[in-house]
Amino acid sequence: MPWAKFEDNYLGNQKLATLTTAAIALDMAAIIYSARELRDGLLSAADVQTVAALIHLRRWPPAAAELVRVHRWTTPDGAFYAIHDYLEYQPSRDEVLKQREEDRERKRRGGRARQGQNSSGIPAGNPPESGGIPAAPVPGPGPGPGIPATPESFPTPYPSPQAGKGARPSGANGSLTNGSTTHCCLIAELSDGREHSNSCSVAVELVRKDSE
After folding, report:
1. CA dist list (Å): 98 to 106, 184, 185
2. Is residue 170 very low, low, confident or very high in pLDDT (cuts 50, 70, 90)?
3. Are 60 and 48 a contacting pair, CB within 8 Å?
4. What is the mean pLDDT of residues 16-44?
């Protein structure tokens, strides 16, 4: 859609000084209408009637006569009204149509380019390469490597009985006669003998002794 241009001194034009408000409104509306309809400033009587209806001007002929009187409008052949110096300020029909065609062609070229290449510069249909970086592992539902999953296998704070009868020193391990160390269960092994699983024979024995 083309734009209608008005100089900032439009209302200070000497030709408008003696015009009524209706004539000034008709002149401005006619310029806008001519730009929209690509009339190059030439308006028929039917066009002027349409413009007058758009601005709610019931009797437009007196206003048009005012514009002709001050040479804002002319009637070259008596059939059309010509807006004075219209093409000095507004683009012509040919210029507007040429610009529209150039815009359509530019959009067509842009559309074809987007079809063959996405916004990241990678041809459409080809996934981007990862650059050799392995994907991060997805966490599973299990408790993790080396950790028992059964409820009875979670640690209990009973130490190993090899720490001494009647005593429960923290961190005690079972020691063999040859000086090597062994553990009674996986939890004891992981905690260096400080804790045992509920199903461990050491924990069961300690619970039995506590209950006696």
Report:
1. 12, 92, 88
2. very low
3. yes
4. 96
| Distance of alpha carbon 191 from alpha carbon 42, whole angstroms | 98
Q: Give the integer Cα–Cα distance in Å for 86 and 31.
A: 8
Contacts 24+ apart (CB under 8 A), 81-84: 81/30, 81/42, 81/43, 81/44, 81/45, 81/47, 81/48, 82/41, 82/42, 82/43, 83/27, 83/30, 83/31, 83/34, 83/41, 83/42, 83/43
Q: How far apart are CA 142 and CA 148, in angstroms?
A: 9
User: What is the pTM (predicted TM-score) of this model?
Assistant: 0.52
Instruction: Say yes or no to pLDDT of 176 above 70.
Output: no
**Residue 197, number of CB atoms within 10 A of its CB:** 22
- Residues 152, 153, 158, 164: is their CA dihedral positive or negative? positive
pLDDT of residue 153: 47
| pLDDT score recorded for residue 44 | 96
State the chain's maximal CA–CA distance in angstroms: 130
